[in-house]
Specification:
InterPro entries: ICL/PEPM, Pyrv/PenolPyrv_kinase-like_dom, Pyrv_kinase-like_dom_sf. The protein has eleven helices and nine strands. It is α/β, with parallel strands linked by helices.
Length: 254
């Protein structure tokens, strides 16, 4: 089944996010029909901070090896690693030439602001013109940065869909009413970030969410398992919690 079609099944697509070939291959072996990447995992593995636009080459390198997997792969390209629409479009066209099925493109900026709607829609349109077959998951950080803003979310979801986005991603959205409002407004598949205890899969299924992704959760859980296993050598029972997103950022921040 193609990547676009996986968003229209009887239940939400569970999209686990890998950070290297081994994690991706292990997830495929476990039976997942598609794999995404986590920008935090890619950045931290390279000793860099996430969401600062500094991992273009690492992202491309990972895409090249993940393209060997026998399932569709979608790549998190943060904000596209450029403010120029033509540069972002060229990047996605290159990813498409490698066999990558989708991209995640966000409107959040490193300074905590959101890209202007007009700019973001121009980027989306350019990407779809350059790589029409790629599933463009347009992420808006209206719930991720600062106070949740439903009105701004709906405005952006509508504008991004009209510009050609194949799906809308609103990380941090959890409430039923907010999710239903985005579904009713965007009229394209909705991606929700899995947040333990807050976005239960069964509830997302009932609401009609199309895709549930894990973001950095698997990478952070792997760090937790690594530390606990190492401590266990000395008889320490481990038990350290998984690091938060901020914890990982602080690990690699110069």
């Amino acid at each position: 089944m193609g990547f676009h079609e996986l968003h229209h099944g009887d239940h939400p697509l569970v999209l686990p996010n890998a950070w290297d070939f081994a994690s991706g291959a292990a997830l495929v072996k476990a039976g997942f029909p598609a794999i995404g990447t986590t920008s935090l995992g890619v950045a931290a593995a390279a000793g860099k901070t996430d969401a600062t636009g500094g991992t273009r080459e690492e992202t491309l390198a990972l895409a090249r090896v993940l393209s060997r997997l026998p399932v569709p792969v979608t790549v998190d390209i943060e904000g596209g690693f450029s403010t120029r629409a033509e540069d972002v479009a060229a990047l996605v066209a290159e990813l498409a030439s490698l066999g990558i099925a989708g991209v995640n493109l966000e409107d959040g900026r490193a300074d905590g602001t959101l890209a202007p709607v007009a700019h973001q829609t121009a980027v989306i349109a350019a990407v779809k013109e350059a790589a029409p077959a790629v599933f463009l998951n347009a992420r808006t950080d209206t719930f991720w940065l600062g106070d949740p803003d439903r009105d701004e979310t709906l405005l952006r979801a509508r504008a991004f869909a009209e510009a050609g986005a194949d799906g809308i991603f609103v990380p941090g959205i959890v409430d039923d009413a907010d999710i239903r409002a985005v579904l009713d407004t965007a009229n394209v598949p909705l991606n929700v970030l899995y947040l333990p205890g807050r976005t239960e899969y069964a509830r997302m299924d009932r609401l009609g969410v199309h895709r549930v992704s894990t973001g950095s959760l698997l990478f952070r859980s792997a760090l937790q398992a690594t530390v606990n296993a190492a401590l266990g050598v000395t008889g320490d029972d481990g038990g350290r919690p998984a690091p938060s997103y901020g914890d990982v950022q602080r690990l690699v921040r110069p």
